[in-house]
Structure formats: C-alpha cells, structure tokens
Amino acid sequence: MRKSADVVIIGGGSLGCSVAYNLAKKGYKNIVLLERKYLSSGSTGRCGAGIRQMWGTEMNCLISRGSAEMFKTLGEETGFGDIEFRQSGYLLTTYDPKQTERLKKNLLIQHKLGIPSHMITPQEAKEIVPFVNTDGMDAAFFCQEDGHINPFKTTFAFAKGAQDLGVEIIRYNPVTDIKYNGRKITSVVTEQGEILTDTVVNAAGAWCKNVGKMVGLSHPVEPERHQILITEPLESSMGPMVMSFAHDSYIQQVPHGGFLMGYGNPNEPKRINFNHGWEFLEQMAQKAVFQLPILKDVRFVRQWAGHYEISPDGQPILGPVPELDNYIMALGCGKGFMLSPMIGKLIAEKMAGEETSLPIDILSIERFAKGELIVETGVV
Amino acid sequence: MDEKNIYLCRCENFTLKELHDLLDSGITSMEEIKRLSRGTMGPCQGKTCRDLIAKEIAIYLNKSMSEIDMPTYRAPVKPIKLGEIAGGDKNA
Ligand SMILES: Cc1cc2nc3c(=O)[nH]c(=O)nc-3n(C[C@H](O)[C@H](O)[C@H](O)COP(=O)(O)OP(=O)(O)OC[C@H]3O[C@@H](n4cnc5c(N)ncnc54)[C@H](O)[C@@H]3O)c2cc1C
Q1: What pLDDT digit, counting tens, does each position of A45-65 carry?
Q2: A175 and A216 in one domain?
Q3: Most B-contacting residue of A302, A303, A304 (CB-CB within 10 A), to test interface
C-alpha cells in the first residue's frame, strides 16, 4: 500500500470506482481507492441495476441521461468488454389517475431535456409486454432508451479503467479514521496502515455517515433496506423493466434469463440490515403474479437485501463541504448506480477546478442549510 | 485434460480455464469471481461447486482454504414457484 496519495477514495462501489476512473482520466496520478470488503459488496452489487431516465427533477434526468450515454461506451473504452447494457426500456404502470397526472407532469421536464418518453394506453402496454395484466391499469409510460446493465461488470470496468491508469485499489481494508487539523485533512487511517493525503472522496454509500463522523461532520443520509429476489432463467421473453408505483415494485428479466424483482417498504426502519425474509417473499410473489401472471410457475432461486442511501430530498449530495478543505462528497443518491458514470465525471471536473458539465453546485450539501431542497418523488 | 473442458460450476458453465483467466487478470477475491463468472449462482446454489472453486483459488494463490473469502449460501435451499409463495387465489 502506498504511504501517501494525492487523493484517497473511500468506497469500492459504482460511485467510488467511477470517481477513481474519471480522476485518473483527468491525469491525476497518485490515487488510492479503499474498500472495506470486495468491490461491489455494498449496494452496487445488490441492486436492480435498472437504468431509468424518466425522473421527476431536472438534475436526476440530466445525470441519468448523461450516464446512459456513457454506459454505451464504458466497456469498450476501458478494455473490459461487454457490460451488458441493454436499452430495452422501462414500462411504468399506474393504477390511479392522480398518479398518472403526476407522471404526466414529469414528461414535460423529460421532453424539455430530450428524453424520448411517452404516455401510452394499457392496450399499448400489452403490445410491449404481451403478458402484462392490464386489470385496473390506468395508463403506462414508456421510454425505450431506459434499460438495464450488469452492475458487477460495470463496477469492474470502472475499476479496470482506473487501475490501468495507475490507481491503486485495495480490498478488505476498512478506513477507520481520518486525521485533520483545522480545515486540512492530513491522513487516512486504515486497518492496514496510514496514508498521508490532504484530499478524501467519501463514496461510502450507505455507510457514508460513519466516514463523515471521522471528520466531525453529520451527513443527512440514512440507509434504507431494500430486498430483492431472482428466479430461475427462462427464455428471453420480456424486454423492459416493468415498474409499478401502485405496487412500489420493479420486475426485470436480465440477459441471463432470470426475473429480478424487488419492492420498497415505506415503513422500513433506517439502519443497516442485511436480513431478508419470508414476508418480503410472499408480498413480492403476490405483486409479481398479479402484474405478470405467467410468473406463477417460475421458481425463485435467490433472495438478498441491500440499502438505498437516502438523502432528505432523494437526490445526490455532491462536491465539497463548507467546514473542511478537499473533503468531497459523492453520495446520497438513493438510486445511484444508474447515475454513477456522470457523477464520477462531474466530481472529477469539480476537483480539477474546471467548469462542470452540469451545474452540480445545486446538489451541494449546503442546499439543506439554505432550505433549497429539490424533492424527487419518483423513487420506488 | 484441457482446462477449457473442466467444469467447476455445471449450472453456469464456469470452467477452470475461465477461473485461471480471472486470477491471472488480478481478480483473486472469490466473492468477486462469483459475481463476474456467475459460478455458484445457479439453481444448485453452489452446493457442489463452491468448495471446488475455493480449492482451485487456494491452490493458485498458494493459500489455505480458510483464507479464501467464500461467499455465503443464499436462501432458499430449494427453488420454489412464485405462485406457491403468493398463495393460491389471493394473488391480487
Ligand atoms: C435492492 C436494491 C435495488 C436497487 N435498484 C437500483 C436500480 O435499479 N438502479 C439504480 O441505479 N440503483 C438501484 N439501487 C441503489 C444503488 O444500489 C445504490 O444507489 C448505488 O449502488 C450506490 O453506489 P455507491 O457506490 O455509492 O455505494 P456502494 O455500492 O454501497 O459502495 C460503497 C462502498 O463503500 C464501502 N465502505 C463503506 N464504509 C467503508 C470504510 N469505512 N472503508 C472502506 N470502505 C467502506 C462499502 O463496503 C461499499 O462497498 C438499488 C439498491 C438496492 C439495495
């Protein structure tokens, strides 16, 4: 392990690895990335890996649209190979006219930003997914350029790109403390020793609060458990991600053939909890069999749990903090995997003192003190 | 026998050659190997292949099996139909 570094990145998920890769591309030479366990062991490797541009705030739309562009070339650009990005669409279904109205308003924002989403009838939804149950369905929204990607391969593509440009990635090495003096960071302490540095990126996902405490800061990000399951593989039959706000659920057939599905429980206590249980399974099975009745004869083969890292307005917290120099936040996204390419790029631009491709200052931590929250409501 | 024809994980067609390619590329964590190769992620839940893969990694790294970061088994023990879990007619 290096004794000193220009930048230390904490967290080996999609965000940390993307920041590492983008900084290295900018010419940063001496970067160390530290991961507590293995790469993708946090939320990234547990996620549904849906790539959605149909969001309700401009920033989420812009970051996800930019990211979808970057996912197209990431595998090749890094020499990793296919990262299984499939733009097979998102089908958002609604069962309530009020919900339909709300999503219709989001279309206005999406169209202004060039996102090719549109509202369709339940019959048209059936043309896209022939076995979807339209009982009680009010409307649906479809965007062909949304899709799905392999989260492991994506993370490893970022990591390979970073390593080939000289980034040192250290696994199974938790950061235990950050030393600082006044406004200046002096070193990062890990289980395997200390690294002298004055610059730290906090990309510790659902654990980002613990890292914040090391520099005396309280980050307003809470871990929220989400459970998920996958079925045995079937022949490829469903293109888009089917997402229902009424069921708070998403169902996607991944390239391997399995159906991946999860739903959010709004009463979930905010803490780290990897347990997964029968109750989720039963609820999820009911939601899935209702929406896609053919799934009733499909066997589920694995279930697990992970966390959304939820900020007060459901949007990422990016960039520096007022209290300390060179402490950079890349966290709090909630649905951050799909945003990772663009966030890495924006953070690298910001750190290099360049003009950022998108106005990320509005996503700074300072928005909470100023009361300038920009609430995203479209999270499932 | 050719490493290409030695299957470590039969559910997911993961061969010894593919394992050695990953190890040669510097990926030596079994947790990471599982996720990149899908080895142990098939319907048998890794019951036959998990130890086999761990053993090959240990040999390659010249380590003992206990030093390998072996993934945990994930529920369920046996695949179950969603319709059975959802429970008969109350599927709504
Ligand atoms: C069930 C589920 C479904 C989801 N579906 C989607 C989806 O469809 N689309 C989408 O875009 N997002 C989805 N998400 C959210 C997404 O997974 C996360 O927002 C995203 O992965 C966050 O990436 P990250 O790199 O910030 O965090 P993580 O991947 O959690 O990475 C943070 C890393 O930091 C490490 N770490 C923590 N503390 C320390 C320390 N002290 N020292 C060293 N390392 C440390 C952790 O081990 C971890 O690996 C889903 C999440 C879940 C749980």
Answers
A1: 999 999 999 999 999 999 999
A2: yes
A3: A302
